[in-house]
Amino acid sequence: MAEVAALVGDPARANILCALLGGRALTATELAFAAGVTPQTTSGHLGKLHTARLLVLMKQGRHRYYRLAGPHVGQMLESIMNVALEGPPRFQPKSRTEDQLRHARTCYDHIAGTLGVGLADRLIEHEHVILGDEAGEVTAAGAEFLGKLGVDLSHARSKRRVFCRPCLDWTERRPHIGGAVGAALADRCFDLKWIERVRDGRALTITPAGRRGLMESFSLQI
Amino acid sequence: MAEVAALVGDPARANILCALLGGRALTATELAFAAGVTPQTTSGHLGKLHTARLLVLMKQGRHRYYRLAGPHVGQMLESIMNVALEGPPRFQPKSRTEDQLRHARTCYDHIAGTLGVGLADRLIEHEHVILGDEAGEVTAAGAEFLGKLGVDLSHARSKRRVFCRPCLDWTERRPHIGGAVGAALADRCFDLKWIERVRDGRALTITPAGRRGLMESFSLQI
DNA sequence: CGGTTGCTTCGGCCGCGAACGAAGCATTGC
DNA sequence: GCAATGCTTCGTTCGCGGCCGAAGCAACCG
User: Residue A139, exposed/middle/buried by CB under 10 A (0-12, 13-18, 19+)?
Assistant: First the structure.
């Protein structure tokens, strides 16, 4: 157990894992950039994370794509973040990308940040979703609403993962929607080109079409 | 975030935190024994864990009692253990206390191990409790059953914490019952003297009275 | 008051491991 | 074929941090 924690406990590796919280598989070089160290150092870190089975590897040509080994790893990282937030206030320089992250980002595979919390608020307000402390459910009205939006709920329901759960947002400190429903909603937003990924990181931008769509469907002013 | 993980990443500190997962407040010397290092080294570790607010301190005479700062810390530790279990199989020597832990132990404030999973199984089997992946609920029949046993559910319900949730058992690899319900049930078992703590650790022994009671109330053969 | 116990602070030793430079393999492209 | 790119392995340096011995406080006890 200490070994796993020690792996996350190194700043470079923590950066790597956070970058992978975006949910996408990234190459070793991209991760080297994210970690802020040279490729050869990164390679060592990736090797350790891989043999400890925190990451899985996909070889493709001369690229090596690394992904988190599964949701349990993401959940662990989130819980560590939560504890870190309860800690003494830390000095953290504000930056451009930091603001973007606060605004909208992916959280493993669903939407977080101001946008994620806003979506959750609207869905709860209209009783499309009921969100408890540890789990949530989509109402009949919510299923219809999301269905009209084009979100594939039946596919989400068939998956072997938790259908709907709250996920504590580390910037807003309020829950957004995770689980299969959160992932399906995020997928649909990508398909509709409402949101787009920024470079290699977790940050998202809302497109003009997204601005319109969110206003029409969710009455959400960005 | 890396700082928090690094704190857990040291073997001595990991031992301290695991010992405190028992839910009780322990003195610095007891924790030194649990960690396997000298008191002065332990003191340094406790200082760090305290300033990082993973632990809280209660001074009582010349003793200093340390406790986990809250359920979020316990939850983090559990999630790290879960990931550690998914990792490559580790060589772990079997010991007497290890067996005791597998058999019955506290998990922060509720019952885990063979006993904890057995209790959960029986409650689910009789539809006294419904347990999902991320949350659970006590049925009307279950409330009556637990009430007759003397478990104070109304008090548990009034608390500001999650009422009933599954907690993945790291030895049995199946869920037992956590949350306020799990804590209330454990409290009652202590009151009835069905179970007793072993020394300073998390391990529990089942008393002869407990053996009878568990058989009569839960048809649980130990 | 000493004496004991519980815990912390100080100082110095030592080892692990993170970091990078350089070189070694693969894969792709011209 | 040669060169470029992507990534890893090797070897070395070096600094952080865990560890303990000794000493310093603080609280109880006679």
Answer: middle
Is 60 exceeded by the pLDDT of residue B92?
Answer: no
Which is more confidently placed, B187 or A107?
Answer: B187
Using CB atoms, which residue from B51, B72, B134 is nearest to A134?
A: B134
Token readout for A40 is 């050869």
| CB-based burial, A36-45: b 16+ in 10 Å, e otherwise | ebeeeebeeb
The answer to whether A10 CB sits below 7 Å from nucleic acid chain D is no
Q: What is the Cβ-side half-sphere exposure of residue B212, based on CA atoms within 13 angstroms? A: 5
pLDDT (average), residues B82-111: 75
pLDDT in tens, B121-178: 999 999 999 887 667 888 999 999 999 999 988 888 877 677 888 877 777 767 889 8
Give the per-residue SS3 of A164-220.
CEEEECCCCCCEEEEHHHHHHHHHHHHHCCCEEECCCCCEEEECHHHHHHHHHHHCC
Which chain A residues are closer than 8 Å to B135 by Cβ? 132-135
What are the residues facing A168 on neighbouring strands? A175
Contact flag, residue A28 CB and nucleic strand D, below 7 A: yes
For residue A125, count other CB atoms closer than 10 A to its CB: 11
| CA dist., res. B131 & res. B121, Å (int) | 10
B27 touches strand C (CB under 7 A): yes
Could you tell me the pTM of the whole model?
0.70
Q: Do the chains contact at A53 and B3, CB–CB below 8 Å?
A: no
Contacts by residues A186-191 (CB-CB < 8 Å, ≥ 24 positions apart): A186/A106, A186/A109, A186/A110, A186/A111, A187/A151, A187/A152, A188/A149, A188/A150, A188/A151, A188/A152, A189/A111, A191/A150
